[in-house]
Amino acid sequence: MVQELVIAIVAAISAVVLYVAVGAKVVKQYERGVVLRLGRLRDDVRGPGFTMVLPGIERLRKVNMQIVTMPVPAQDGITRDNVTVRVDAVIYFKVVDAASAVIQVEDYRFAVSQMAQTSLRSIIGKSDLDDLLSNREKLNQGLELMIDSPAVGWGVQIDRVEIKDVSLPETMKRSMARQAEADRERRARVINADAELQASKKLAQAAGEMSSQPAALQLRLLQTVVAVAAEKNSTLVLPFPVELLRFLERAAQPVQSAPPVPSAQPVQTSRQQAARPGPRPAPPPAQQQPARQPSQPSRPSALPARPKPLARH
């Protein structure tokens, strides 16, 4: 009898220990426990530490309250200016209401992921390419607002959304590179032109100062010669003053004078012409006389007599 009583007591104690072991739960510091008793939500959310539930009657679900980092898969889309891009992002969120995260949505992680992908495609279609590349802060705020609106009812708070990368087609990359190169070249030309303008103004001021003191030009010439000679060159280039060129130009201009008088050629006699060896000079052609009036008789033009050659012995 006593033995049966001892066995019964031991069995009862074992059942109580087993019941307590099954119902004993430990909630970690970063978790919260949501208790469902016979399918109904208990108002009290279990905090971190040791807690007990009734096995078979109550069910405890632990919800992680830490910030979750979730990458958003890359989404293909067309921007408002008709450029095909591929954008991926990352989202940071956390659960602020454990009961709503368990009751209001089946899987809050999957729901947040799908909402992020849909919002990302929507924000791509509403933005220009320049906004995606340079104005990401504004797009991040708009994307965070689009995701946070439905997530509030799920007990989830969107902490931050960041666009990681924007992939462009190769043709678009080459076009943007050419545009950037052209813009850089334009800026370089403008800067060079501005420098030339400032230099011309300074040179004009220097020329004005040198014109008042003629010796300043000579000193500048000597300074240039010293600067060139310091390089130890075998060839020395001396600058030529422009004023000297102008003086030479004025000096080279021809002076207007009277027309030159033709010099009288010596008349050779017929005997000298005959004694000169070589071909004989051709007689001068007959000059045409102007037509005379019929009242006056025309005289024949006298031709010069051809000299007789001298006999050679």
Compact overview of the structure:
This protein has 313 residues and is of the alpha+beta class.
Radius of gyration, in Å, reads 57 Å
Largest sheet: 3 strands, antiparallel
On the 0-100 scale, what is the average pLDDT? Answer: 78
Please report the number of helical segments: 9
Query: What distance lies between the first and last C-alpha atoms, to the nearest angstrom?
Result: 197 Å
* DSSP, total strands: 8
Secondary structural class: alpha+beta
The ordered H/E elements are HEEEEEEEHHHHEHHHH
> In what order do the strands lie side by side in the largest sheet?
3-2-5
Low-confidence stretches: 263-275, 286-303
Large-scale geometry: rod-shaped
What share of residues is helical? Answer: 40-55%
Query: How much of the sequence is in beta strands?
Result: 15-25%
Structure, explained:
This protein has 313 residues and is α+β, with helices and mostly antiparallel strands. It has helices at 2-23, 98-103, 108-126, 129-134, 136-151, 170-212, 214-229, 242-251, 270-275, and strands spanning 24-27, 31-37, 40-41, 49-52, 58-64, 68-78, 84-95, 156-167. The strands form three sheets. It has a three-stranded antiparallel β-sheet with strand order 3-2-5. The longest helix has 43 residues, at 170-212.
SSE blueprint:
Elements: H1 2-23, E1 24-27, E2 31-37, E3 40-41, E4 49-52, E5 58-64, E6 68-78, E7 84-95, H2 98-103, H3 108-126, H4 129-134, H5 136-151, E8 156-167, H6 170-212, H7 214-229, H8 242-251, H9 270-275
Antiparallel strand pairs: 1-4, 2-3, 2-5, 6-7, 7-8
